Amino acid sequence: MKKNTLFTVLLLCISHVGISQIDTKATKETKALYRNLGKIASTNILFGHQHATEYGHGWSGESDRSDVKSVTGSHPAIIGVDISGLSGRPADEILKNSEVLRKNVVDTYNRGGVTTVAWHFSNPASGGGFYWKDSVSARAIELIKPGGSHHEKYKEILRTIADFAKSAKGKDGSNVPMLFRPYHEFDGDWFWWGKSHCSREDFISVWQFTVTYLRDTLGVHNFIYVFSPDCKFNSEQEFLERYPGDKFVDMVGMDNYADFGRDGKYNLEAGIKKLKIVSDYAKKANKVAAFTETGLESIPDKNWWTESLLKSLKAEKINLAYVLVWRNDTRSSTHYYAPFPGQVSVPDFKVFYDDPYTLFEKDLVNIYH
Length: 369
Known about the structure:
Elements: H1 4-13, H2 28-41, E1 45-50, E2 55-56, E3 59-60, H3 67-72, E4 78-82, H4 91-111, E5 114-118, H5 141-144, H6 151-167, E6 178-181, H7 200-217, E7 223-227, H8 236-239, E8 251-255, H9 268-285, E9 288-294, H10 304-314, E10 322-325, H11 346-354, E11 358-359
Parallel strand pairs: 1-4, 1-10, 1-11, 4-5, 5-6, 6-7, 7-8, 8-9, 9-10
Antiparallel strand pairs: 2-3
Helix pairs in contact: 10-11
C-alpha cells in the first residue's frame, strides 16, 4: 500500500485548516470530511472517476469492480454518481433508482471512499431532458425560483433528493457525507440552466433556495455544496459572475475539457491559469477548491496522465482537493476517460498512480474522522 503511513500521519498531525462550512449543523462525519479535504489540498490530490463502480468499459453492475481498480488495484478515492434518476420519472422507477444509487454510495463510504453527486436534471417545466433544445426547452430557472409557476414542483423534487440523502447510512449508522454539485457548467449554453437561458439573478435565487431548503427546511446535514462552472472565464471576476455567495457554497471548482486536449487542442497554460483562479479564490474565501471534471476522451495520448494532467496540477501554487475524470461508457468503444486493462495509457497511468502526490481509495485513512 503505497502512501497510507504517510497519509495517516498527515491526517493526524496537520493543524486545523481555517475553512468555513455553510452548514453549522452538518454531521460530524461531514465536518470531518470537509476539514480533511482542506488538509489534503495543501499537500496532495484525490483522484476521482465518474460512475467508476457502477459500470465501465464493456461491463456493468459487478460488485466491487472499477476499471481503475483493474489497472491499479485500488478504486478511485472519489466516486462520481448522478441523481438524474430521482426526478421526471414514474414513482416506482424513482424508488428503484434511489435504491441502486444508495447501495453504491453506502458501499463507497464503507470502503472509506468519497462520493461526489452530479445532477443532470431533466427540465421540470418542459421536454428536452437536461440539454437545452430550441423550440422544446422552457426557461425553467425562472419558473422554479420562489414565486415561479413550478416552484412547488421543484420543492417536491428537492424533497425526493432529501429523502435519498437522509436514507444513505453507512454500516456505522451515520448519514453518508456527499459532495453535492448542482447546476454544473452553468456558464455554457448546452444545459437548460445555462447562461443564455436564465438571468444571473434568477440563477442565484434558485441556488440559494436549493441550499436553504435542503439544509434548513428538510434537514439535510450530510451535503457539502460544490460550485462548478465550465472553463469560460479568464479572471476571478468572470469566475464569480454567477456566484451565489460564500454563505451558500462550500467548495469551488471548474469543469475543463477544452484546455486539456479535447478535439486535439491543448492549452495547458490557460488551464493552469484557470485552476489557479479557482484555488486562489478558495484560499481567500476560506473554502476548498477542486478540479471537478476533466479528461481526454479515448485517451489517445499515451502520456496524458503525467505530461498533461499531473504537470498542470503541480504547476504554480495550486491547492485542489480532488480531480475527477468523466465516465467509461459500457457499450461505446470510444467514450471512456479512465484506462482499462490493455488501454494505451495504462503504463503512464500507473506512474500517475504511484506518484506520492496522487491519492486513491486505498490511501485514505480516517477521512471521516
